[in-house]
Amino acid sequence: MTPRSPVPAETMLTVLAYFQDRGPVAIAEAASDLSLSEARLRKALGQLWTCGLPGYGPGELIDLAFSSDVTFGGPIVFDGDFDEPDAFDEGEDLIDTAEFVEVTFSAGITRPLRLTFEEAVTLKTALATLIGRPEVVDQDGLQEALEVLGAISTPEARLDGTAAAQVVVDRHADAAGELRAALETGHAVRFLYHSAKSDSSRIRIVDGGRVHLRGEHTYLRGYDRGVGEWRTFRVDRIADVEDLGPAREVGPEPEDGDTPPVAHVYAEVPAGAEWFLDEYPFSEVEHRDDGTIRVRIDYYDAAWLRRFLAGNATTLVPCDAQLRREVAAAAREALAAYDGS
Amino acid sequence: MATSKSQRLVNLVICLLSRSDYQSARQIRATVQGYEDSASDEAFARTFERDKAELEDAGVILEKGTSRDVDEAIGYRIRRDDVELPPLDLTPRAAGVLAVVGAVWAGAERNAELTGALNKLRAAGIQPELTAPVEGAAGDPRELEVAADLAEYAGTGNVVGFTHTPAGETVPAERSLEPWLVASREGHWYVVGYDRGREAVRSFRISRIANLRVHQDTVATHPRPSSSEVQAILDAAVSAFDATVSARIWVARDTAAELRACARQTTPQERNGVPGDLLDIPSASLVRLTRLVAGAGVHAVALEPAELVASVCTTLRTAAEAAS
Question: Of chain B residues 261-320, which have a CB less than 8 A from chain A?
Fold first, then answer.
C-alpha cells in the first residue's frame, strides 16, 4: 500500500533545490523563505531523505546533515546512513528537533523547476497591477522583473503591462517615487497634501510612514508631526515631497487605524447605472424590483458629502428631500458661471 | 518503509535526469523505488501514466525516444534544459519588487500559484526582500483571479464564455470570446479579443465579467493581430470608456484640493473679483474632472476643453432638477 504523501512532489523538488550550495541553513529561515511551516518543511526533508538515484546504496540517496548549533562543533552531527534501524530512528528524531540543516548530496537536483504556465501568468498578472504605481514599487525594477519573467516562462502567456503606465501624470510620478525612496530609508517626509476630506491644501510632516494599499489606491500611513496623531494620506493627493532625513521616534500606533465615519445617508442609483457601484465602496447596496438601487453613503464631513452628491448627480440622488434641495441650490448657483456657454 | 507517491515522483525525476539515454517503462519499474508495489503489469501501467501526467502538470516534460531495452522500444528521459529554471540575473531592485508583490497579493485567490512561483525564485537563489514597509491588498482578489484565468486561456488559444454587464446597463449579456490580451490600464483590468457572437473585436473591463468558463471543445480560429495592434485597440477602447483630457480650470483660493492635486501649474487669478487660481491640468480622466468640478460648486469653473464644460453643465443641471 502506498502511503499518503504528506508533501507534494513539486514542493519537495523546490525544497531540495533551495538548499543547493547554501551550507547549513536555519530551519526557521528556510521555512520562511519557502512559505512553509517549520513542521511541513521538516516533513518534506524527512520524505526527501529516502529518495535518490536508482541503486539506493550509499552515495546515491539524498543526504542531509542536521545540527542544533552551527557555530560550535560544525554542522554535521548525523550523517544519514539508513542500514541500521537505530540510526534511522535517530535520523527521524533529528529531523524533528534540529535547528539547522544542510543538503550534502542532492542526487542531481540542482535547480528549481521552471515556473508552470499558471505560476508565470499569476506572477505576471500580480506584477502588472503595480505598473503606474511608483509610490509602491520602483518602476524600473518592475519592468526588469517582468522582462526576466518573460524569459523564464512560456511565451504564450499573453499578458501585457508594459504600455500601461503612460497615463501617470509626471508630477505625481516624481512625488510618488521620492516618497517611496524616503520611506525605504526610514526617513521623515515633508509634502503638500491636498485633502479631499477638509478640502484644504497644507504642508504635512510625517514620521514612521509606511505604504498601505487598498484596492487601486495607495495610502501613506504615518505620524503627522503637525497634529500629533497618526494619519492616513492618499498618495495621489501628495505633492512636492521632500526627504527630511532620519525620522523621529514615534509612539505606538492606535489599534483602530481610521476614525469611524460619523454619519450616513441613503441615496438612490437610477435603474441602468449599476456600473456606478464599481466606482465607490458603498456600505450597503439594496437592489429593488424597479431596477433602482438604494445605497448607503458613510461620511466624515457634511461638506464632503454635498460635494460628492453634486459631482455624481447623474448617477446618485439623495433620498432625503432637504439634502436634495441643498445640493440643487448649490448646483444652480454654480451653473451661473456658465451662462451663455 | 513504504514509498509515498511524492517520493516515487521525486525518484522518477532524479532517475530520468541522471540518464542521457531513454529508459523504458519496464526499466523504470525495475529501478525506481516506489513502483515495486504494483500488483500487476496493468496496475503499474496505470500508475505510470498518472505519474507522467502529474509531472507534466508540474512542468516536467518526459521526452519520448527509443530505449536500449530490447523488449520495449519506447523510452523516456528528462532534458535538464527543458525543466530547470535557467540562471536568473535580477538586480536587488527587481528582487525587491517581487517581495512587494508577494506581500500585497498574499492570500488572494491564486495564492498557491503565486507562492509557488516566488518559492522557485527563492530556491534559485533570488532573495526578494522588502526595502520599504508595505501592507494592504493591491486590488480586488477576484479581479486578479479572472485576469489570470483569461490570460491563461489567451495563451492556450481557448474560447471562453462569460456574462458581461456594460457600463450604463443593468442586464448582463452572454458573450463568447477568443481572448487575445489581458492588460491593466489606469488600475483596471481589461481583456481584448474576438467576440464570436458580435463577430467583431471587443474589449471588456474585467470587473464587469462574471461566470467565466472555458469552452473545452472549441479552439480560437480568428486571426490574431500583432501584440502592438491589440494594444492600440485596447488604448482606443479605454479612452472611449473614459477619455483622458487636458484641462484648464479656475478654482477659488483655498478650495478644491483634489483638483489642485491634479494640476501641473497653478497661477493666481481673480475671477469676477473672487481671488483664486488658474489650474493647468495636463492629463486627467474626463469623468473624474467632471465630478470634482461639479462637486466644488461655485468654487470651481471648467474653462477648457468644451467637452468638460458640457459634462459639468449636464451634471449641475441634473442636480438642480433633482430637487423637484
Answer: 261-262, 264, 282-284, 290-298, 301, 309, 312-320
Determine contact: B66 vs chain A, CB below 8 A: no
Beta-bridged to residue B183, according to DSSP, are A160, B190
C-alpha atoms less than 13 angstroms from C-alpha of A80 in its C-beta half-sphere: 30
For chain A, give the percent of residues with pLDDT over 90. 17
Q: Fill in the amino acid letter for A109.
A: I
CA–centroid distance for B6 within its chain: 31
Give all strands (DSSP E) within A36-186, no chain letters. 63-67, 78-79, 100-105, 159-160
Contacts 24+ apart (CB under 8 A), B229-235: B230/B180, B230/B181, B230/B192, B231/A160, B231/A163, B231/B181, B231/B183, B233/B192, B233/B201, B233/B203, B234/B181, B234/B183, B234/B185, B234/B190, B234/B192, B234/B203, B235/A163, B235/B185
The DSSP code for A106 is: -
CB contacts of A238 in chain B (<8 Å) are 261
CB contact under 8 A, A122 and B117: yes
Q: Are A42 and A69 in contact (CB under 8 A)?
A: no
Residue B41 to chain A, least CA–CA distance (Å): 16
State the nearest Cα–Cα gap between A235 and chain B, in angstroms. Answer: 10
**Predicted TM-score (pTM) of this structure:** 0.70
Query: What is the distance between the alpha carbons of residues B319 and A258, in angstroms, rounded to a whole number?
Result: 31
Phi, psi at A88, each rounded to 5°: -60, -50
Does the structure show a pLDDT above 60 at B206? yes
**What H or E segment, with its residue span, contains residue A91?**
helix A85-97
Contact yes or no for A126 and B108 at CB 8 A: yes
User: Are A116 and B57 inside 8 Å of each other by CB?
Assistant: yes
Q: What is the mean pLDDT of chain B?
A: 86
pLDDT tens digits for range B116-134: 999 999 998 888 776 666 6
Contact yes or no for A199 and B255 at CB 8 A: yes
Distance, in Å, from the CA atom of A178 to the CA atom of A252, rounded to the nearest integer, reads 26
pLDDT band at B322 (very low <50, low <70, confident <90, very high): confident
Query: Are residues B315 and A310, on separate chains, in Cβ contact within 8 Å?
Result: yes
